[in-house]
Amino acid sequence: MSRNSESGYSSDENTISPQELIAQDQRRFAKSYDVEEEMMRSANGILYTGREISTGESVVIKQIPRGKISEFKQVQNRPVPSEIYYHFKAAQASDYVVAPLDWYERRSSFVLVMERLDGFVDLFEFSKKYGAINEEAVRIIAGQLVTCCMELSHAGICHRDIKDENILINPDTLEIRLIDFGCASREDNCFTTARGTPSYWPIEYFENRLLSAEPLTVWSIGAVIYILLTGNWETDETGQMRRNFLAERNLNSYTVSLLDRVFCPDPMMRITMKEILASGWC
């Protein structure tokens, strides 16, 4: 995340006012990128298509309003949204993360520029189009996702919002990339607050309002696997997931056994990411 002196990250940075740093960022962004069309609006920002001026390469540009930012991290004496901070750290840790290219500060927002991957769609749209897919394909996808989450864990990062909408997939190759680190945090043994999407929170949060990083991540991975296998993800009136045992009748018994271990109500007895890979299922 280092920058050259034009960005204000020079040895005498402390002599430059925050307003001038923002002005420098605005000039640098205008020289580097063209914003094209709005792609979508998410809970924590607006995504645009864009193009790098010098190369003509397509990029994705995310504008994050200051009002949506709940946590900052210090990077070379500048406050940076934790989403940007953890996205860059995650990309260093895993090749399964969409590559962030640069970031810029504006008066009312921050801007994150990312690579744009040709042929990729989000897993939500993929599942909506194809429904339940064969187990072999799910294993290929799941293996990448588990590996990615393990690599983030080793780097001390917990994504905390693993779901189909935050995973990109190439339908032809089944390659995946993880996106959106707006809920990410340092990996702790215990979280007392939940982040992300309530319908993907594990059962222990509804019972005692406590979460541990790995059991939380395994449950979320399980949700993605379940959607791919059954085309289904339902929660009851309390927000807890409801398994579709009728749909599960079409699955291999070993796969059902794995799901039992993934969705074990006791987080301390739940299968780990390492055990999922060691099982040979993916």
Automatic annotation (TrEMBL):
Its EC number is 2.7.11.1. One of its GO terms (cellular component) is host cell cytoplasm. It is found in: Host cytoplasm. The keyword Amino-acid biosynthesis does not apply. Residues 33-282 form the Protein kinase domain. It catalyses: L-threonyl-[protein] + ATP = O-phospho-L-threonyl-[protein] + ADP + H(+); L-seryl-[protein] + ATP = O-phospho-L-seryl-[protein] + ADP + H(+). It is an enzyme of class 2 (transferase). Keywords: ATP-binding, Host cytoplasm, Kinase, Nucleotide-binding, Serine/threonine-protein kinase, Transferase. Pfam families: Pkinase (PF00069). Its main location: host cell. The keyword Nucleotide-binding applies. GO terms for molecular function: ATP binding; protein serine/threonine kinase activity. Belongs to the protein kinase superfamily. CAMK Ser/Thr protein kinase family. PIM subfamily. PANTHER family: PROTEIN KINASE DOMAIN-CONTAINING PROTEIN, SERINE/THREONINE-PROTEIN KINASE PIM. This is Serine/threonine-protein kinase 1. The lineage of its organism: Eukaryota, Metazoa, Chordata, Tunicata, Appendicularia.
